[in-house]
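I hope you will forgive my troubling you with a question about protein structure. The matter concerns a single protein, recorded as an amino acid sequence and a row of backbone structure tokens. Please examine both parts with care and let me know of anything in them that strikes you as inconsistent. Here, with my thanks, is the record as I have it:
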Amino acid sequence: MVRGPEFLTDLLQITKAVTASTVAWWVAVNVLDSPVPFLAPWTALLTVHATVYRSLARGAQTTVASAIGVGVSFLIGYFLGVNVWTFALALFVGLAGARISWIRDEGVAIATTAIFILGSGFSEQQPLLGNRLVEVCLGVAVGVAVNLLVVPPLRDQQASSYVDSINRRMGRVLTDMADELSSSWDTDRADAWVAETKGMSKELDSAWQTVRFARESATLNPRLRTPRTWQRANAQQGRRVGYHEILERVDEGISHLRHLARTLREATYDGGEWDANFREQWVGVIRDTGRAIADPDAEVEPIEDRLDELATSAGDDDALPGRLWPIYGSLITSVRHIARIVDDVASAREAREASGDAA
């Protein structure tokens, strides 16, 4: 989706990286008068991450790793000279150093810095190694500054879009169940429903990553230091539902839907006929449940009341075969859980959005 939140976030990230690298190159050329201004834009590019916190953390690692790379290049070039074997030695030392735990994320900068310095003519670079360190620090500073000025979004919209998508998928599965169960079904259809719930779980994992990113984005975020933003944060404190709570409930809903699909799959191996009255009523309930989940504005009769009526009428029917009662009870219970969870998610999101608007 070209205008979706993910696309806009990626476009913003590209713009920040281009801006930081270009500014760092300009400063290196026009202010530092660097004859080979590659380290500053390169480190700026490495430093620009999606959040301010990550930029500071990775920027510090890049600075240390690049400084080590400059030192390794100087020692090897000065004492051993530059040839194919010492070049390989510098790369070996750099890649080995990249395994150091506290600079692991950006440790490869040791090796790449050595490539830049030794590969661009060590004899010309040797008197300017101090300048190379200045360029590294410049690139990191510009990268962090760009992220401070262009604050990344908190991605609440993306988390919300994931929840909407999962709800639509759950609704489609339930309405598909109703269509299939109106006549007959087989294990292939039940397996497809189980597979669809697994796809929902993967989509939910993406939503969790988005929420975790949003929390990190709020860390060291200068926008959250303004008086107006502090007032909004305090106004929302204690009454705005977090998306982690919403996603936990969505996860429960997916689990119950998967259990429902598996129950139906096991029921296909039972050779007996279902009670026609129970089947008709239950199919109507899950069809309306699916409609209500996929479209919260759809007008349907209260689901829980109908499930209570179905359970009561089935309990009063002495003609129902006793061996099917565990299946009937499981079907009713699963749909009840799904309906309650979806209602909870909708209420939590309404409360979250209302508190955000009020603040």
Notes: The chain has two domains: 5-149, 156-358. The radius of gyration is 30 Å.
